[in-house]
């Protein structure tokens, strides 16, 4: 839902809601598989007239993520996200875009992850220029922050037969489970491992 505020310089305000729930049920054990998840996102924004070349925006977003715990989804974390951005595009030869994000993350149930509560920031600046009728073009990008996406590794955890998704096949016969030796299991008695992601 959005509304243009004609009495206030044609600013625009709005709210958005989005969600997704993926429920993969293991019928044999009446539990949700590790591939199940869910999230809700609520967003509020206020921005200047988007028809103008120079503009700004403020956005607040509340998000909660859910992970499987037994036969139901449980809230894993929730975050408050604040974003301020501006664009200076009036001069066709020199364009500047700036944005600043601040996130407060609260972890309530980590599940198989090592995610921890934290506060993070992310700033971004872009500068684009075009000089001497296109003879010299350039683009600069600078990004900094403590909230960038962490690299994720995965491992396989042994579970009772039938409760997993994967099977281990010792291709090189060394007796050591290696990441490239796990395959999706076809039969229930082979489903002995689940994949776990770790930041």
Provide an overview of this structure:
By secondary structure, this protein is mostly beta strands. Helices cover 0% and strands 60% of the residues. It has strands at 2-5, 11-22, 25-26, 31-32, 37-47, 54-69, 72-88, 94-107, 118-131, 136-145, 153-158, 166-168, 182-184, 193-198. The mean pLDDT is 87.
Q: What brief labels describe this structure?
A:
single chain; 199 residues; mainly beta; eight-stranded antiparallel beta sheet; two-stranded antiparallel sheet; 0% helix
Structure at a glance:
By secondary structure, the chain is mainly β. The chain is 0% helix and 60% strand.
Query: What integer is the average pLDDT?
Result: 87
Helix content: under 10%
3D shape:
elongated
Share in β-strands? over 45%
Written as H for each helix and E for each strand, in order along the chain, the element string is: EEEEEEEEEEEEEE
What structural class do you assign from the helix and strand content?
A: mainly beta
Biggest β-sheet description: 8 strands, antiparallel
Strand order of the largest sheet: 1-2-5-6-7-8-9-10
Number of helices: 0
Poorly predicted sequence stretches spanning 5 or more consecutive residues: none
N-to-C span: 36 Å
Rg calculated over all Cα atoms: 24 Å
Number of strands: 14
């Amino acid at each position: 839902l959005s509304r243009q505020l004609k009495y206030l310089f044609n600013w625009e305000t709005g709210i958005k809601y989005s969600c997704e729930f993926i429920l993969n049920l293991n019928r044999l054990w009446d539990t949700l598989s590790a591939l199940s998840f869910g999230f809700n996102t609520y967003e509020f924004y206020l921005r200047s007239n988007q028809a103008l070349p120079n503009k700004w925006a403020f956005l607040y977003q509340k998000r909660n993520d859910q992970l499987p715990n037994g036969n139901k989804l449980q809230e894993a974390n929730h975050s408050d996200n604040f974003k301020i951005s501006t664009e200076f595009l009036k001069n066709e030869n020199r364009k500047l875009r700036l944005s600043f994000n601040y996130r407060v993350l609260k972890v309530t149930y980590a599940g198989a992850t090592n995610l921890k509560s934290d506060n993070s920031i992310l700033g971004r600046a872009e500068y684009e220029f075009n000089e001497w009728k296109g003879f010299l073009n350039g683009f600069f990008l600078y990004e900094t922050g403590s909230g960038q996406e962490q690299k994720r590794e995965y491992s396989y955890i042994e579970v009772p037969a039938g409760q997993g998704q994967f099977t281990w096949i010792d291709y090189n016969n060394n007796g050591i489970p290696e990441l490239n030796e796990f395959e999706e299991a076809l039969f229930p008695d082979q489903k002995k491992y689940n994949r776990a992601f770790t930041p």
